[in-house]
Write a structure and sequence with these properties.
The chain contains 23 helices and 2 strands. With 501 residues, it is mainly alpha-helical. The radius of gyration is 23 Å and the shape is globular.
């Protein structure tokens, strides 16, 4: 199928309307503090069951792109990041708003988000086929190495929380092992004689329960807080001026590269990209003292990098079936429901579908930029929506989404169970992302592990055989050990404080 035919399939009123709806929904969920992109994607999943693959991809990708960018609205106006991806945006965005430049800050942030998203879409188009061809030579040992390295990276990158990260991952792997064995399809694990557990837990139930409900509990605790929106001039389209963007070219380039690289690394996420990019921009700046006082370059660094994560996170999801963050983990589940199997064969055996995804990602970023830039003075009022009306609607949609997976109440009860688990883990500062990644990669990890043993006989034989898989496993082990060594000074300091007390 030629490119023109693919464009004709995508540029239809139905798909363009779904991109429009997804953009509005993502922007709203990104702007309201406490709600986030994975929740928004999980809520639209029930609607994708009745859609064809292309319309469902259009809706989900639009929510994803707009959700990451939407967090800048409350970050700039209220100093409260709508999503964790916009944490660094508050450092200079809010001071700009305090100086009466709220519109300028929102325009700069939206433009930077657009540039980051477009550049990451180009990276997605260029690097995914290369990675897919490279992965074709992989066997079970190499895939085991990739999944093990991904899990090790998530643990190591938990700043000062590697032990809690490991516990969270092990918990996710344990939950993933419940049900029928994925290899022989006969053995039942941890079902306790319950028929409902034979198919295990659904990923959507875990995402909605562990991610959405703890956030809703937190929001419910501050219902009386009132959000005051800033007043804007009556202007239909906001664009940053040349003066605001002067001297930011290097920041744009650096932030795009950081965002794409961070997106490819499993478990890092846009918040890490934003903070790293902001730190580098401040360090490389000729006037670092301006950062934190309302510097446009700080907003550019944060928003450009956290939106560049989107394309970067999709690369390993499409090429290796390894999600880069929580949002792409939900997207991976949505594609699986549509019968789309991600992995190296997707790009090579279904090039038309891959090209369609690329075009949709470009369109989603364009829609995000046009809509967010033209609704700046209206979108600021989103944060004034009374939460006592908003929360019940979200809870209902969460339960409907869980029920519609298999049309059974067990999945709704699963959401409640994971809500309690997520709330307990968060209260004890255990990160949820490693658990989600462990649950998603658990079945893959088990399959590749058992196939590796069948092929090599033992792990000793596998790791001593020169191969890419051995290198990846050794890197994963080394990263984990380095993570423990890195935390030794902090543990000693904490022990000394407790001893003196």
């Amino acid at each position: 199928m030629d490119l023109l035919t693919i464009f004709q399939q995508i540029l239809t009123p139905d798909i363009l309307f779904l991109i429009l709806i997804g953009t509005f929904m993502g922007m709203i969920f990104g702007a309201i503090p406490g709600l986030n992109t994975p929740i928004a994607i999980a809520l639209v999943l029930p609607f994708t069951y009745a859609l064809e693959p292309l319309p469902s991809i259009a809706l989900i990708m639009a929510v994803y792109m707009a959700g990451i960018s939407g967090g800048l609205i409350s970050a700039i106006l209220l100093r409260i990041p709508g999503t964790v991806s916009s944490i660094a945006t508050t450092l200079d965005g809010y001071p700009m708003a305090q100086k009466g430049k709220a519109a300028e800050a929102l325009a700069i942030g939206t433009y930077a988000s657009f540039i980051g998203g477009i550049v990451s879409a180009v990276a997605l188009m260029l690097f995914t086929p290369m990675l897919s061809r490279f992965a074709l030579a992989f066997g079970p040992w190499e895939y085991l190495g990739i999944t093990f390295l991904a899990l090790s990276l998530v643990c190591t990158l938990m700043n000062g929380e590697i032990v809690k990260g490991i516990v969270s991952i092990l918990l996710g792997l344990l939950i993933a092992s419940i049900g029928t064995s994925p290899i022989d399809g006969v053995a039942m694990r941890f079902t306790f004689g319950t028929t409902a557990l034979q198919n295990g837990f659904q990923m959507i139930a875990l995402i909605v329960g562990a991610y959405a409900f703890p956030e809703l509990f937190s929001i419910a605790g501050c219902l009386k807080e009132k959000m005051v929106a800033t007043q804007f001039k009556k202007k239909w389209f906001y664009m940053p001026s040349k003066a605001d963007l002067q001297g930011t070219l290097k920041t744009f380039i650096r932030s795009c590269v950081i965002g794409i690289v961070v997106g490819i690394l499993p478990g890092m996420g846009p918040s890490v990209a934003g903070m790293v990019s902001y730190g580098r921009a401040k360090k490389e700046s000729d006037n670092p003292e301006k950062f934190g006082t309302g510097c446009a370059e700080g907003v550019v660094a944060s928003e450009c990098s956290n939106n560049a994560v989107t394309g970067g996170a999709i690369i390993p999801m499409l090429a290796l079936s390894v999600p880069g963050d929580a949002s792409t983990a939900v997207i991976l589940g949505a594609l699986t429901i549509q019968g789309i199997q991600c992995g190296p064969l997707l790009v090579l055996n279904q090039p038309d579908l891959f090209k369609s995804v690329i075009i949709i990602v470009f369109l989603a970023n364009i829609f995000m930029f046009l809509i967010q830039s033209s609704t700046i003075r209206f979108s600021a009022r989103i944060i004034q929506v009374p939460k006592q009306f908003l929360l019940p609607i979200i809870v209902v949609f969460c339960c409907i989404g869980a029920f519609s997976i298999n049309n059974r109440m067990f999945d709704v009860f699963s959401v409640c169970l994971f809500a309690i688990l997520g709330y307990v883990l968060e209260n004890h500062q255990y990160p949820l992302m490693p658990m989600v990644l462990g649950f998603v990669l658990g079945p893959m990890f088990e399959q590749y592990c058992r196939r590796t043993i069948s092929y090599y006989g033992t792990f000793v034989n596998a790791i001593t055989t020169p191969s890419i898989g051995s290198v990846l496993v050794i890197m994963g082990i080394a990263l984990t050990v380095w993570g423990f060594v890195r935390e030794i000074p902090a543990v000693k300091e904490r022990f000394q404080k407790e001893k003196t007390v």
